[in-house]
């Protein structure tokens, strides 16, 4: 059975009511390094994005889901991006908002649900992610779900005047 519901959280589609939540996340400069963002997003642009968020992953090549508590509190987002149907693969990105929500297993549960959805419903063969060499929490999260380090991209991202290495992790559906 395909489900996006876990024990403590569920994954849901974006809603127009998520405008403020997404605006806050997308304009949080402390995470721009992770998302490769260079400039802020306006409410107008995010509203337009939300108006088209219902489009099929096969058309737009990405899927963004909200990580939600059963009290309907948005805890973060998890994405499939760079969706490649021909080669049956996609990239994964995850963000749990605010440190008060971190280290509670929400990210682990969301990633597990997304992996199951990707392999059973979308029939993907593999998922991959890019993780900064310094991001120990993400390395642990993805490694614990079976992702394997397959490469190191040296001097990959230029951040605050210096270059940072980035790992490439991959999970193949056996």
Automatic annotation (TrEMBL):
List each copy of the N-acetyltransferase domain by range. 9-174
Any coiled-coil regions, as ranges: none
Any signal peptide, and if so, which residues? none
Keyword set for this entry? Answer: Transferase
List the InterPro entries hit by this protein, alphabetically. Acyl_CoA_acyltransferase (IPR016181), GNAT_dom (IPR000182)
Example of a GO MF term: acyltransferase activity, transferring groups other than amino-acyl groups
Q: What is this protein called?
A: GNAT family N-acetyltransferase
Q: Which organism is it from?
A: Algibacter amylolyticus
